[in-house]
Amino acid sequence: MTIFETLKESLTITFFVFIMMMFVDYLNVLSKGKMSQLIKGGLFRQYLITSFLGATPGCLGTFMSVSFYLRGLITFGAITGCMVSSSGDAAFVMLSMFPKEAILLFFILFILGILSAYITDKLVPFFKIVPCKECGLSIHLEDQCTYLGFKEIQENFRKISFSRFLLLLVFLGSFYSFIFLVKEGWNWERITFVFLILIAFFIVVTVPEHYLEEHIWSHIIKKHLWKTFFWIFLALFIVDSGMKLWNLENVLKTHTILVLLSAGLIGIIPDSAPHLIFVFMFAKGLIPFSVLLTSSIVQDGHGMLPLLSYSIKDSILVKLFNLAIGLAVGFIVYLLGL
Question: What is the per-residue pLDDT for 254?
Fold first, then answer.
């Protein structure tokens, strides 16, 4: 992967992280905080929702869960459970190569995500972990972002601000690109991306100027987006460089236990690409299910990258829990002969 390709992928991931952050914030303010109560309504509900989002193919579910976590809506255990259940973009490859085993794996990851969330939250006081608090954007009366009327929307377009104009231009350009310029056929991922772009466009068109400037422009874009892009680009660049320097596949064929341990350690890397080694090896019958399960538990595709932009400490702690859970479960499954 060239620097240009890395930059392109980083921009794409950052773009959809931005939409998810904007969508979560919009729902929370639109409901006047009721969304917070819905998510916080019970720990099991948090575990169920975040583990389900993590188990869905791709990284969008984990991006949404990270957005929940950054707003202080879910516990440290819940975000850990989400990362345990996630297998990132590698899920699409697994579904295409061995769909039956892949669906079984996703279900197992979903159950493990719920259990891991519960266990992790029980251990949080013991390790004195301070979960993420809401990052400083409170809801005021003027923040109500109910839909504007047609006349108000007309007025906003007549005196359109630079931020609204720029955002609309970006979303319209992205929509056009995904519809007319992408050569690949339509799939679940492409449909989801187009749908998200339409949601983002609707939000920018219908929200009041105060909400657009304070929440989207000043808070999400200026405070979070540049850091998100920096960490995504840095992580992808390091991963690509490392894959070129070391032939990891040959090293991992020596012994099953070593391969299992390596699967956990490589899973720490915030990218689905290294995990594909284990996907292909499993498809060819070179490694047992326990190794694939270990790698799937520890790795979370690009899902960890947005959290890295907010808190390196929280990201490291989540990864340590994932690694411990992945190795423990993988070793038990290996002893069972799977």
Answer: 63
- Give the residue extent of every domain in the chain: 3-145+207-241
Radius of gyration for the chain, computed over Cα atoms and rounded to the nearest angstrom:
21
Q: What is residue 116's three-state secondary structure?
A: helix
What are the tens digits of pLDDT across the range 312-330? 888 888 888 889 998 999 9
d(CA 127, CA 125) in angstroms, rounded, equals 6
Q: What pLDDT band is residue 112 in, cutting at 50, 70 and 90?
A: very high
Residue 300 Rama label (left phi>0; alpha psi -120 to 50; beta): alpha
How far is C-alpha 103 from the geometric centre of its chain's CA atoms? 20
φ, ψ for residue 268 (rounded to 5)? -65, -30
Does pTM top 0.85 for this prediction? no
Q: Would the CA dihedral through 224, 302, 47, 128 be positive or negative?
A: negative
Question: CA 122 to CA 125: how far, in whole Å?
Answer: 7
Sign of the CA dihedral with 284 first, then 290, 293, and 297 last: negative
* Exposure string over 105-134, b if 16+ CB within 10 A, otherwise e: bbebbbebbbebbbebbeebeeeebebbee
Q: For residue 183, what are the contacts with CB-CB under 8 A and spacing of at least 6? A: none
